[in-house]
Amino acid sequence: MNFFNTKFGKGKGKKDGSNKPLFLCQPFVSATLVNGSLRKVVALPRYVDLNEWLAVNTFDFFNYTNLFFGSVAIFCTAESCPVMHGGPGHEYMWTDSQKRSIKVPAPHYVDYAMSALQNHLNDEQIFPTHAGADFPPHFQTVVKHIFKQLFRIFAHIYHGHYDKILHMSAEGHLNTLFAHFICFAREFDLIEKKELAPLAEFISELEATGRI
Predict the structure, then answer these.
(1) Is residue 156 annotated as involved in ligand binding?
(2) Which of 5, 10, 45, 92 has the highest CB neighbour number within 10 Å of its CB?
(3) 161 is an annotated ligand-binding site residue
(4) E strands of the chain, at which residues?
């Protein structure tokens, strides 16, 4: 039997008869690896340069998000996900090298996005690694762009592949990473409020339970 072809986790909250996605239903919505708020974890440490703190955490969030998408990537195909989306009403277009907005399947979008973000992270002119090197004036703008793209990948995982996360019993890990990500983004104003709409209800649940 192929459990991954069932509708489990694809959008219906069967237990209460609602149409909520499963990540908004109990017990999944409350599954985290920490009980308290992550706000203290994301605060800028004393004597640490702001851009250094942003850089280190951006690297970490990129790597962890990449790992999570990698865990469901085999199920994210051009056939199963013909458009990149973050739930109903939230489709994402890719901007190509000619600045044209084009519709591409989700796995292509994620591949393009992660490759572009990796190039930014590897660019010594943007993310310097040598002692004494300065961050460029537009560094925080680049960080905001990275966070926007990472959020879109989170949104697609939650709305498109949460059933796979449940089958791996990884919902607590994913929820904790996402709560940490949102906490950090809020602390340093890295994502516009309108971008958060696909997971706004889930973010409100994280607030209500004191995670962020």
Answers:
(1) yes
(2) 92
(3) yes
(4) 84-85, 91-92, 94-95, 101-102
